Amino acid sequence: MILLLSLSSIAQIDGKFKHNICEFGPNCFVYKFNENGTFEYQYHQDILGSGTLTGTYKKIGDTLKLNPNKVLYAAKSKIIEKEYKNSDSTKIEIKFQRLAEKGKTDIENWDWYVSINNAEFIKTNENGVLTIPRAKVEKIEIKDILKMEIGDDFLKLTDSIFRPETDKNYIEIFASESEETGDIAILDWMTKTFVLKGRKLYPLTFEPEVGFLGQKKTYYRKFE
């Protein structure tokens, strides 16, 4: 008898639960729970957009705790060395690899500050390009414009120091945004802990729609 009660308390659930905010639109949120302990979260939010997230969940008693999967990942930093057409100059070009979904690439052009061989930092142009008289480059350190000009540490890189291995005078750096920066905003927005009461899920953690519906009227109802 005790064993049966224990197994019952951790049993998984299945089915779809729709937020009652969907009745008012345009925002709508739906959780689909599978018996294997995974879930899908379909969302449409007027500011954060639309999409589907996935993850795993645990049910202990009448409480559900969700662990969503990451969406954005850091690319690998790298340095490419080649010959520049102007043999009297050394060209350094920095390309910024933003966090992106698996299998995708998101590269942006930014202004950077560059220190060559521990010298003072020099600002690149808006495309991340710096051209100097030809020099033997053994070390390049980069800092983003936000950190240098306003002291903002919002942007984090996986690597900020690069060491060329040849004497070539065109150095292309692919700097990568760190996963410490965060993920898509909806991961913070979504509710991650619920209590199950009959055919309804009531949020136990942050629930943005409480501001519109009120605490008692904010829930997900099972359908289908």
The low-pLDDT segments are 1-10
Major β-sheet annotation: 8 strands, antiparallel, barrel
For the residues shown, what is the average pLDDT? Answer: 90
**SS field, number of helical segments:** 4
Order the strands across the largest sheet as they lie in space.
Answer: 1-2-3-4-5-15-16-17
Indicate the structural class: mainly beta
Radius of gyration, taken over Cα atoms and rounded to an integer in Å: 25 Å
Q: Based on CA inertia axes, which overall geometry fits?
A: elongated
SSE order: HEEEEEEEEEEEEHEEHEEHE
Outline of the structure:
It contains four helices and 17 strands. It has helices at 2-9, 145-150, 186-189, 210-213, and strands at 15-19, 28-33, 38-45, 49-60, 63-68, 78-82, 89-97, 107-108, 112-116, 122-123, 129-133, 140-144, 161-162, 170-176, 193-197, 200-203, 220-223.
Please describe what this structure looks like.
By secondary structure, the chain is mainly beta. It is 10% helix and 41% strand. It has helices at 2-9, 145-150, 186-189, 210-213; strands at 15-19, 28-33, 38-45, 49-60, 63-68, 78-82, 89-97, 107-108, 112-116, 122-123, 129-133, 140-144, 161-162, 170-176, 193-197, 200-203, 220-223. The strands form three sheets. The protein has an eight-stranded antiparallel beta barrel. Strands 6, 7, 8, 11 and 14 form a five-stranded mixed β-sheet that branches. Strand 1 (15-19) and strand 2 (28-33) form a beta hairpin. Residues 1-10 have low confidence and may be disordered.
